[in-house]
Amino acid sequence: MPLTHTRELFAKALKGKYALGAFNVNNMELLQAIVEACEEEKAPVMLQISKGARSYANPVYLKKLIEAAISVTNVPIAVHLDHGDSFELCKECIDEGFTSVMIDASHEPFEKNVEVCRKVVDYAHKHDCVVEGELGHLVGAQFDEGEEGGRYSTEGHYTHPEEAVKFVKESGVDSLAVAIGNSHGAYKFKGEQHLDLDRLKSIKKALMDAGMGDYPLVLHGASSVPADLVEQINENGGGMGTDTAGVPEADIEVARRVGCTKVNIDTDLRLAMTAAIRKVFKQNPKEFDPRKYLAPARTQVKELVRHKVRDVLCCAGHAFD
Ligand code: G3H
Ligand code: 13P
Ligand code: ZN
């Protein structure tokens, strides 16, 4: 099956009311784990590549690995640039055949963010590629004093519904990554903090009311940081803090129902892989054959992806809709 366009995956996900998992790929084992799980669960999938992944693995290796995955896998696969930080990087990926790119100029003032996105959109749309923009800052609730224990941003970090409408209209982006208290990594919240799901609903409604239809929203920082994986890491020589915290899966479910069409997951894959490798080394310190620790790591990532697509994102079974 050839690469499937992100546009097509989004349209079907919106219609079917499920979310697409956008899983980060950095090496062969992660890629195999993701596509094998999705194939077994008949789930469409987005593979996303960051700038860091490109410099770690080399864009050509990643391209060839993904080509291999596509040739041996029978589910729809789209390829996306995660957190593109310049027009040049987005252009490179568009020219390489990525089906979507993210241009992340969210650190810029509103007008500059629009301008940078517009430039990428103009190029992408001429080359059959769609674009994700971001409005707001993924500082995470823990770094935002806000009100009520940091739930609401008073610093203006979170995405404002009316600004989202203006941003989408002016930039022309095809999907929007929102800031609603989400952040990357394994330490997302402290205390009772959680995602501002009411704000997510307001953003979706504002876009709908402005005539943009069922507009696709993107949730970054959607790892749930499973306690059992953190425990497995720590029981096997790791030193992750006691303050790890992810997005509860119940909140991801709400986000999916509200209309987050693309849900980004990287940290959980890293935790699953690291936990499995640590366990092998703890149980057999003499082991030095990489296949002996990478194979269980791949299996553990695969089971995690299976769980996400089946039980959380509900995209399992939708590969051939
Ligand atoms: O958003 C960040 C992703 O987890 C990618 O991380 O830039 O370390 O590859 P990275
Ligand atoms: P996590 O760190 O929560 O996995 O988020 C990944 C992400 O948003 C990639 O863009
Ligand atoms: Zn992200």
Structure description:
The chain has 321 residues and is α/β, with parallel strands linked by helices. It has 12 helices and 8 strands. It has an 8-stranded parallel barrel with strand order 1-2-3-4-5-6-7-8, surrounded by 8 helices. Helix 5 links the parallel strand 3 and strand 4. The longest helix is centred in the last third of the chain and has 23 residues. The protein starts with 5 loop residues before the first helix and ends in a 9-residue tail after the last helix. About 2% of the residues have low confidence. Bound molecules: glyceraldehyde-3-phosphate, 1,3-dihydroxyacetonephosphate and zinc ion. The site of 1,3-dihydroxyacetonephosphate has 14 residues, from strand 3, strand 8 and helix 11.
